[in-house]
From TrEMBL:
Transmembrane segments: none annotated. The keyword Isomerase applies. It catalyses: alpha-D-glucose 6-phosphate = beta-D-fructose 6-phosphate. Its EC number is 5.3.1.9. The lineage of its organism: Bacteria, Pseudomonadati, Bacteroidota, Bacteroidia, Bacteroidales. Pathway: Carbohydrate biosynthesis; gluconeogenesis; Carbohydrate degradation; glycolysis; D-glyceraldehyde 3-phosphate and glycerone phosphate from D-glucose: step 2/4. Belongs to the GPI family. This is Glucose-6-phosphate isomerase. Keywords: Cytoplasm, Gluconeogenesis, Glycolysis, Isomerase. One of its GO terms (cellular component) is cytosol. It comes from the Bacteria. The keyword Cytoplasm applies.
Length: 433
């Protein structure tokens, strides 16, 4: 089970308990989007087995690459899990190679992707809750055309699975028309809370990982995080970060010392940024990879403006073992490290950095996780989701909407000439001159 060392004051703990009651009692703003709370225990066997069966079917039929198409909450959870669980250099795969698309509009990215898949056996998972998001829709158009050209329309359809709303949106209509297999994203689960639906489970299963273990980790964590207790780690985290925010710490930096967790940071940024950043409020979520970024962001964190605090996700046990070798010549003067586990050096870097940053006036807290595996990732996903709900209610905002995401879309549609946006287009173009 994860351990945390947050020590908020009694006042903030009480406030966090009140917000916890609102969340658990399903009485707060956005309470029609609380389906994620029940996912670990209530996900039907048919969905779990359905994801596993597609993974087996594609593996047995020789599929070499699965392109997962989605943006925001429709890709970050799976990306975070796969980066965390997979070999850093892409070897020793457990399942099929998964690559991602549709999370940007870059011509270079998607043209490079077509180069990469052109001679490989390909399948695709297209994910969009609304079924109308431009980035994944455009990417899917490109991948679909590629697959239909290579395999014909019928076989391409058998290699495509859509994950979308049960009845609404262009992706649902397209799936019905083309006969794609589909998984439903429940109405009451928002994108950034959807990693434990087929949005995350299907790509993770396809890549060969144990989605049952992930759901078990999430379920065990849910038992802890929905317990009405001042020792509840989600309550402690929400209380501590709100206290820091009210004391002028407007930025939270999620820190890792293992590059495999880089995308956990990206997923966490979306979760907290979209849930809390509204109505002129919210902690700005940032992330760094240490020790790498100690040589880029370290200076600012140590001595720049005192507006941030750090939350370290610390992994107790690495999955691999490597020691520093001895060098009889010792020209680099590093023989004091000979025979030492590299992870021990990493842990000492972590301890030294914690003290240095605290001395520099940056509050530093830790979330410890036993190891990086499916079970522990399930725990982390659930822990952060519950913490986020409590924390946003403490801030006084609705954690489950994202009205600000629409602003850029309107301008982009007008500039691209989307029918219905003619009136805005001229005014917007003038502002760009
Ligand atoms: O959290 C959210 O709701 C958003 O980030 C969405 O996940 C993102 O905008 C993608 O939306 P959709 O799944 O509808 O394509």
């Amino acid at each position: 089970m994860i351990k945390v060392n947050f020590k908020p004051s009694e006042n903030y703990l009480d406030r966090a308990m009140a917000a916890f009651d609102v969340l658990r009692g399903r009485q707060g703003r956005g309470n029609d989007f609380l389906g994620w709370m029940d996912l670990p225990s209530d996900t039907p066997e048919s969905i779990i087995k359905g994801c596993e069966d597609i993974a087996v079917e594609w593996r047995d039929s020789g599929v070499e690459v699965v392109v997962v198409i989605g943006i925001g909450g429709s890709y970050l959870g799976a990306k975070a899990a796969l980066e965390a669980l997979s070999h850093t250099f892409g070897i020793r795969r457990k399942g099929i190679e998964v690559v991602f698309a549709g999370f940007n509009l870059s011509e270079d990215y998607h043209a490079d992707l077509l180069d990469y898949i052109h001679d490989k056996s390909v399948a695709a998972v297209v994910i969009s809750k609304s079924g109308t998001t431009t980035e994944p829709a455009v990417a899917f158009r490109i991948i679909k055309e590629h697959m239909e050209r290579r395999y014909g329309r019928k076989e391409a359809a058998s290699r495509i699975v859509a994950v979308t709303d049960k009845s609404r949106g262009a992706l649902k209509s397209l799936s019905d028309q083309e006969g794609y297999r589909t998984f439903v994203i429940p109405d009451n689960v928002g994108g950034r809370f959807s990693v434990l639906t087929p949005v995350g489970l299907l790509p993770i299963a396809v890549a060969g990982y144990d989605i049952r273990a992930m759901l078990k980790g999430a379920s065990d964590m849910a038992s802890v995080c929905f317990e009405r207790s001042k020792a509840n780690p989600a309550v402690l985290y929400a209380a501590a970060r709100n206290e820091l925010y009210d004391n002028g710490r407007k930025i939270e930096i999620l820190v890792n010392y293992n590059p495999r967790l880089q995308y956990l940071g990206e997923w966490w940024k979306q979760l907290f940024g979209e849930s809390e950043g509204k109505e002129g409020r919210g902690i700005f979520p940032a992330s760094v990879n240490f020790t790498t970024d100690l040589h880029s962001m370290g200076q600012y964190i140590q001595e720049g403006e005192r507006i941030m605090f750090e939350t370290v996700v610390s992994v107790e046990n690495p999955g691999r073992e490597l020691t520093v070798c001895d060098d009889p010549q010792n020209l680099d003067g590093l023989n004091f490290l000979s025979g030492m586990r590299l992870e021990h050096c990493n842990k000492m870097a972590e301890a030294g950095t914690r003290l240095a940053h605290m001395d520099g006036g940056v509050p530093n807290n830790r979330i410890s996780v036993d190891r990086i595996d499916e079970y522990n990732l399930g725990e982390l996903f659930m822990f952060f989701e519950v913490s986020c709900g409590i924390s946003a209610y403490m801030l006084g905002v609705n954690p489950f909407d994202q009205p600000g995401v629409e602003a850029y879309k309107k301008n982009m549609f007008a500039l691209l000439g989307k029918p219905g946006y003619e009136a805005q287009a001229e005014a917007i173009r003038k502002r760009l001159d």
